[in-house]
From TrEMBL:
It comes from the Bacteria. Catalyzes the hydrolysis of the adenine ring of phosphoribosyl-AMP. It catalyses: 1-(5-phospho-beta-D-ribosyl)-ATP + H2O = 1-(5-phospho-beta-D-ribosyl)-5'-AMP + diphosphate + H(+); 1-(5-phospho-beta-D-ribosyl)-5'-AMP + H2O = 1-(5-phospho-beta-D-ribosyl)-5-[(5-phospho-beta-D-ribosylamino)methylideneamino]imidazole-4-carboxamide. GO terms for cellular component: cytoplasm. Its main location: cytoplasm. This is Phosphoribosyl-AMP cyclohydrolase. It is found in: Cytoplasm. The gene is hisI. It comes from Limobrevibacterium gyesilva. Keywords: Amino-acid biosynthesis, Cytoplasm, Histidine biosynthesis, Hydrolase, Magnesium, Metal-binding, Zinc. Mg(2+) binds at D79, D81, D83. Pathway: Amino-acid biosynthesis; L-histidine biosynthesis; L-histidine from 5-phospho-alpha-D-ribose 1-diphosphate: step 3/9; Amino-acid biosynthesis; L-histidine biosynthesis; L-histidine from 5-phospho-alpha-D-ribose 1-diphosphate: step 2/9. One of its GO terms (molecular function) is zinc ion binding. SUPFAM superfamilies: HisI-like.
C-alpha cells in the first residue's frame, strides 16, 4: 500500500485533523495525544520522524523541534474506524512540555487530582523559557 492509499484510508474530521496517540513501542507506555493533518501523516511516513499539527500555532509541529525530545516512528496504526492514529515511537527524552516522561501525570484519586510523576527535566532547560 502506498502512502497516498494509507492517507486516503484515514477519516480526517471536518477540520482535516485526526487524533494521534503516541505510545512507546517497547514498553507500551502511553506518552501523549496530539493531532495530525494529512501533511503531518505524510511527512511522518516519509521521514520516520513524527510530525503533528499544532492547533494553537496552526502549523506543522515536528516533535522535538524546540526541545530536542524527538519521536522516531516505529509503526503507524489506524483504529477500526480509521478515525484515530496510533504512532508507536521511540521517544528520545521526555514527551511532555512540562518535562515529564508522558503527559498523563495527574490521576483522579480520592476525589482529587494527584500528581503521580515529577518532571525529569525543567521546561526552562527544554525550551530556554517557561512553557506551559
Amino acid at each position: 500500500m502506498t502512502h497516498d492509499a494509507i492517507l486516503d484510508t484515514i477519516a480526517f474530521d471536518a477540520r482535516g485533523l485526526v487524533p494521534a496517540i503516541a505510545q512507546q513501542h517497547d514498553t507500551g507506555e502511553v506518552l501523549m495525544l496530539a493531532w495530525m493533518n494529512r501533511e503531518a501523516v505524510a511527512e511522518t511516513l516519509a521521514t520516520g520522524r513524527v510530525c503533528y499539527f499544532s492547533r494553537s500555532r496552526n502549523r506543522l509541529w515536528r516533535k522535538g523541534e524546540s526541545s530536542g525530545q524527538q519521536q522516531r516512528l516505529i509503526e503507524l496504526r489506524l483504529d477500526c474506524d480509521g478515525d484515530t492514529v496510533l504512532v508507536l515511537v521511540d521517544q528520545q527524552g521526555v514527551a511532555c512540555h512540562t518535562g515529564r516522561r508522558d503527559c498523563f501525570f495527574r490521576a483522579a484519586r480520592d476525589g482529587a487530582l494527584e500528581e503521580i510523576a515529577a518532571p525529569l527535566v525543567s521546561p526552562d532547560a527544554l525550551y530556554g523559557h517557561s512553557h506551559g
